Amino acid sequence: MDLYGKDFLCTQEWEVEELMAVLDLAARMKRDRFSPRWSRVLENKTFFMFFYNPSVRTRQSFECAATELGGHAQFLEPGAMRLKTEKTAGETIEDATQVMSRYASGLGIRILEDKIGAYGEGDDLLRQYARWATIPIISMAHDKYHPCQGLADIMGWAEWFGQGPGHTLDMGVLEGKKLLMTWGHGALARSWCSVQEGLLIASRFGMHITLACPEGYDLDPQVIEWTKTNCGAHGTEFQIVHDPCSGYEGAHVVYSRHWMSPRAYVDGEFQKQKEVEMALKYPQWICDEEKMALTTDAIFTHPMPVDRGHEVTDAVASGPRSVIYNVAENRLHVQKALMALTMGNL
């Protein structure tokens, strides 16, 4: 399967067979991490990492991935570049991207809620870069989607319910399992990207989906429609509930994370403080041992960073059925595979 040069902005835009190609290679790379067969895949090649927002796991995992493939990851940020904006003069996206394409073999972009003035602007930005680039554009998390996180999530869940790390990855073990995607409270105003990607990729791999959130915390209608369509294609169930407990019943995977409301932007301004004040009114929306006892011996998953004591209790996040570190590790492996296939022509 030829994925060389293909952009990766949302898992929904890739065929399941293409996603499987990445996951299969990621599993092989994980089993044989430092094998010489991978160490020259990106030899003499550079991956540009353009960070509008800071990160922990994203920068670390992409830099490690490039190094282990024999390449180089270069950190970029807007403040160190002369780029045209609504308020400042500088290079257009067309000019910047055309030049970047002649230097690097791939470009990753990370832009989240506080660096935009309206939902969708981050996605639009990535698609503008993709329009002009002759190298693959990879989302390192933007306001709508976090496709690398989605791959790491689904790989980690399949490993748990299958034979575990170090064995052949069997994605079929997720078919018929139930994912609970539940809102979590806290002093936060987080993007929708990880939860939306989680819904999309889980429904592509045959999982039942329950989305739980307080009234007024609706997700992107397009993502909801895609999730319904994906579930329909597998004959699985998709439901939305607005209480903090009922969705746990029968769940195999519990994903508790805060996300902001659709009212987060007003007149081009991100209303962070208002979102935080509103979120703190829902302390009952926390994943705890009592709620987990309602599940079918579910695992707990989260893209991190975890807001312990708000989204989830320490007892659950650090418990024996938490896969948060397994999933975080998989960011390295799925990104190595993705870079190898889109940049290295493996």
From TrEMBL:
The keyword Transferase applies. Residues 6-156 form the Aspartate/ornithine carbamoyltransferase carbamoyl-P binding domain. Residues 195-341 form the Aspartate/ornithine carbamoyltransferase Asp/Orn-binding domain. InterPro entries: Asp/Orn_carbamoyltranf_P-bd, Asp/Orn_carbamoylTrfase, Asp/Orn_carbamoylTrfase_sf, Asp_carbamoyltransf_Asp/Orn-bd. Keywords: Transferase. One of its GO terms (biological process) is citrulline biosynthetic process. This is N-acetylornithine carbamoyltransferase. It comes from Candidatus Hakubella thermalkaliphila. The lineage of its organism: Bacteria, Bacillati, Actinomycetota, Actinomycetota incertae sedis, Candidatus Hakubellales.
